[in-house]
Specification:
36% of the residues lie in helices and 18% in strands. It is an alpha/beta fold and 261 residues long. The chain has one domain: Rossmann fold.
């Protein structure tokens, strides 16, 4: 393990293995002046339909967040991808859990607290929500940032051929063949009154993840009294850049500063 350095020095540690597979690695960004009492961590999870993508895809988010939250650590994680009927669900869910548990197990060494904010895009947002709602018994997650993530796989299955093809690839089953894996992999089914504050960012013209995936989640959060916000961009599709992306990060910054203490 590399030396984590003086707490007064910022440090980047690349490709830290959290398990045995080549994909099970993360990049760790530790801020200057960090302490185990006060330094929270942002967990970043890339998208790609659970079948492709890489942590390098999230460089824009890491850079933007580090500029806005100079006192946060950041971890940007890879996870096993479905390929040729291998690494089926819940492999990706389990990897996110393993990566976070590995990092929290090193919190004293890295000189950070156990408080987390989890951010993901698309499939990564699905995994961010699923971990934060389902796999965080210690309640370390203090807020979730969901960039157009699938929230209800039963509804996603019903939305079209492309979505069905992706879901068959990553689950190995149609919805009718295994309703349980679709239920267990749907963050919306795990919302409770104890669910962490959640900000959802959604494009109104998204051809892959329908806006109803986000609005249904917001409704479920409302039903359970969970703090939430929906940032809706009517003309955007599955991801966006420019002024609307800047606006997204401004809304994220305000939401986190208001709800994570």
């Amino acid at each position: 393990m590399p030396d984590t350095g003086s707490t007064t020095t910022a440090l980047t540690i690349s490709d830290v293995s959290y398990s045995d597979d080549a994909k099970q690695k993360m990049d760790i960004y530790l801020p200057a002046g960090r302490t185990t009492e006060n330094t929270k961590t942002l967990v970043v999870i890339h998208g790609g339909g659970w079948t492709e993508g890489d942590k390098s895809d999230m460089a824009f988010g890491v850079d933007s967040f580090k500029k806005r939250f100079t006192d946060y650590a950041v971890i940007n994680i890879n996870y096993r991808l479905e390929y040729n009927n291998t690494n089926l669900f819940p492999a990706q869910e389990n990897d996110v859990k393993a990566a976070i548990e590995f990092f929290l197990g090193k919190s004293a060494e890295y000189k950070v607290s156990n408080d987390l904010v989890v951010l993901g895009a698309s499939a990564g947002a699905h995994l961010a929500l699923l971990h934060s709602y389902k796999n965080d018994p210690g309640k370390h997650v203090k807020a979730v940032v969901d960039f157009f993530g699938p929230t209800d796989l039963k509804a996603l299955w019903s939305s079209g051929f492309v979505q069905q093809s992706i879901l068959i690839a990553v689950t190995g089953k149609t919805y009718d063949q295994d309703t349980s894996i679709y239920y267990q992999s749907s963050p919306i089914n795990f919302v409770t009154a104890q669910t962490p504050p959640t900000i959802v960012l959604q494009g109104g013209a998204d051809p892959l993840v329908a806006p109803s995936q986000s609005t249904s989640l917001i409704a479920r959060l409302d039903e359970n009294g969970v703090i939430n916000e929906l940032a809706f961009y009517p003309s955007e599709e599955h991801g966006w850049v420019g002024a609307n992306l800047t606006d997204s990060f401004e809304k994220i910054e305000a939401f986190i500063k208001a709800n994570v203490h």
